[in-house]
Write a structure and sequence with these properties.
GO terms for molecular function: acyltransferase activity. This is GNAT family N-acetyltransferase. The chain has 244 residues and is of the alpha+beta class. The chain is 34% helix and 33% strand. The protein contains seven helices and twelve strands. The protein has a nine-stranded mixed beta sheet, with helices on both faces. The chain has a three-stranded antiparallel beta sheet with strand order 5-7-8.
């Protein structure tokens, strides 16, 4: 097997109008000159990589090759065998089926609230295209990319969402993928209710549920901890931009 395997990210390439690649595999023994040799021969304008926070040697070598840190992702997990039971009491209602018009409204929420992610943090990517990334991600999610979504409603109006995939990590581990709350309804416990509901629902299929966010998104991490989630992983996300 090659010591560094790059693959194309079709979705990112279409959104950002660049050849966007990602590191699918790297050998821990890979040296800086080997990284540069492969990158120079690749067709990608931007290449992303996720590196475990404990892999300091890889962090050093990839940064020396020109990769720069754009994000730090933390992953939490709820394990029903080692966590407190999930409450089934909620202060909001939830909607099972949303219209195409409501999907567009929820996608617009995503476009407006996501600002501290790896795409907005990268000076080599346009802000308006980073906004478009989340908008289109939500549209795709509600139209088949995800297995479903938890959608809280206030006075019959969808005000938040969390999309999910069932047993996508393993045959017993599901993921809540992307979540957002309308800024006009923040501070009302909607996010807590939504994650609580999503966890309870996914436990019908899985024994473990995962969620992830940026390391500096403290508020949502506190919510996860209250529900019973525990941190299991920290990864740095780096990009390499090939200069003309």
């Amino acid at each position: 097997m090659d010591k560094l395997v790059l693959k194309k990210d079709e979705f990112n390439s279409n959104i950002f109008e660049l050849n966007f690649g990602y590191v699918d595999y790297y050998d821990p023994s890979l040296q800086t000159n080997e990284i540069l040799d492969i990158l120079n021969k690749s067709a990608y304008d931007i290449t992303g990589i996720k590196i475990n926070s404990t892999d300091l040697n890889a962090m050093y070598n990839f940064q020396k090759a020109g990769f720069y840190v754009v994000d730090c992702l933390v992953t939490y997990e709820y394990d029903k065998n080692n966590a407190k039971p999930i409450s089934d009491e909620y202060s909001v209602s939830f909607k099972e089926n949303v219209t195409q018009h409501e999907i567009v409204e929820l996608a617009s929420i995503a476009r407006s609230v996501f600002k501290i992610d790896r795409f907005h943090s990268d000076p080599n990517l346009k802000t308006e295209l980073a906004d478009k990334y989340y908008y289109q991600w939500v549209i795709n999610s509600f139209n088949g990319f995800s297995d479903g979504a938890i959608v809280p409603v206030i006075d019959g109006k969808p005000v938040a969402f969390t999309t999910y995939k069932i047993n996508n990590v393993s045959e017993s581990t599901s993921t809540m993928v992307l979540s957002a709350v309308n800024p006009n309804y923040m501070g009302k416990g909607i996010y807590h209710n939504m994650i609580q509901k999503g966890t309870q629902y996914l436990l019908q299929f899985s024994s473990k549920i995962r969620v992830g966010t940026q390391v500096d998104n403290i508020a949502v991490q506190r919510t996860w901890q209250k529900i019973g989630y525990k941190m299991i992983d920290v990864k740095y996300i780096l990009h390499y931009y090939k200069k003309e």
